[in-house]
């Protein structure tokens, strides 16, 4: 079982948790493993919410938890997202983000950190409204040298 943490429980974060809970069986079949949301970081409490017992307010509880393998960052903005993602990578956790501002400001640095540690830094959800473009560019066009993508 893969255990993950979600940073942020707003519209996107609660949607991620809902999709994982609702479609857990089909996701597990495709991923080859079940995925459990172990912790959700948010400033707020959510009394009565199904995940109320998973809410944490301290990022270090996630960073120092050896069971958590993947951190899903959906907080938005550059800070504190950058600091939290950097800590996660330094702690040996792969990261998935939908945060455009974070990727624009620190994408190359975070990709390099992940590469050095043989981790994943997945950011496809932050590009083109979630249109799957990053993976095809990396996998299907590896023989081509792509220097930039522009819009006129």
TrEMBL record:
Q: Name one GO biological process term.
A: threonine biosynthetic process
Q: Which Pfam families match?
A: NAD_binding_3 (PF03447)
GO molecular-function terms, A-Z: homoserine dehydrogenase activity; NADP binding
Q: Which domain of life is it from?
A: Bacteria
Give the classification, highest ranks. Answer: Bacteria, Bacillati, Bacillota, Clostridia, Lachnospirales
The identity of this protein, by name, is Homoserine dehydrogenase
Q: Which organism is it from?
A: Lachnospira eligens CAG:72
Residue ranges annotated for the Aspartate/homoserine dehydrogenase NAD-binding domain, each copy included: 8-124
